[in-house]
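Weekly structure sync, notes
Attendees: PL (lead), two postdocs, one rotation student
Agenda item 3: pending single-chain targets
PL asked that the sequence for the first pending target be pasted directly into the notes so everyone works from the same version. It is reproduced below exactly as submitted, 325 residues in total.
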Amino acid sequence: MMYQELSRTLQQHDHFAVISHFRPDGDAIGSTLALGLLLRSLGKKVLMWNSDPVPQRYAFLSGTQDILPVPDDMPQDVQVMICVDTGDIKRLNQNVQNIFNKAPFTINIDHHHTNTHYAQLNVVEGGAAACGCMIYKLLRTTGAELSREIAEALYAAISTDTGSFQYSSTTPEVMRIAAELIEAGVDVGDINRRIYQEVPPTCFITQREVLNNMVIEENGTISHYSMPAGRKAELGVGMEDTKDLVDIIRVMQGVKVAAIFEDLEDGRIRVSLRSKDPAIDVSAIAGMHGGGGHCMASGIRMRGPLEEAREAVLNSIRTAVRKLS
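Predicted structure, written out during the meeting:
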């Protein structure tokens, strides 16, 4: 029913703005693109925004050139602002929050079970593997054509948020959706090569840094790494090079929870959490410190200093691991 209500709402308006969270990942970019292209196919006028540039690994997707920086104010003719793949309005920069709250009508389309229902219409499916799966269901509800461009955007969204179909969220439904996307023209070999096998050299610099300085504790069940302020500049790497670092230390045998702590040099600490054991819900741990996400993958943005933030989160992780033992 919620997709039918969403479809009716979209049909009632003509001019939309679509946005996702800062530091966008594959699901954020793919869902933004797919929804924007879907609305355009329905004859709607669409603006697509993000606070940060499209990560290079997703720049090959058709339409990414239309994802523009967020304007200083809401254009007067925008009737509806839609936020995708964003569980909390705090995942938008403050100026974007201000613009979002000025919109005549707001929609929140998301798959995080910790979603705070911050819009006027909240379409939240906490069990969905990716926001891209939700955009696919919306497309089918509207009866719009599944073009190759939309299919590629959705495939990128779903593949990246399921760990290339490795996570437990990869259900039979997810695989059926992926099959339909492939039938619509997705070249699996090409798109996987572009996303997973074209890694910039600077990413290897950060990976080496993490592997050389990671910490293992609690009998090998917890792994973590901390990047202090100024370290990215010393290494000659950028913001995009520090994404997905937690997955490097997550895969070690015996590790149940992995964490990355990154000093963002503005007084905040970015924390990425991953669990390999369904009995340890890292979204609950993140929630204790003002963050959120999924049971197996969550994040936090919290005030520093780095050492205090790290110890606070690690104490929560240690407690969860010890209870499991």
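Discussion points:
- The radius of gyration is 19 Å.
- Residues 18 and 82 are 5 Å apart (CA to CA).
Action: rotation student to compare against the earlier draft before next sync.
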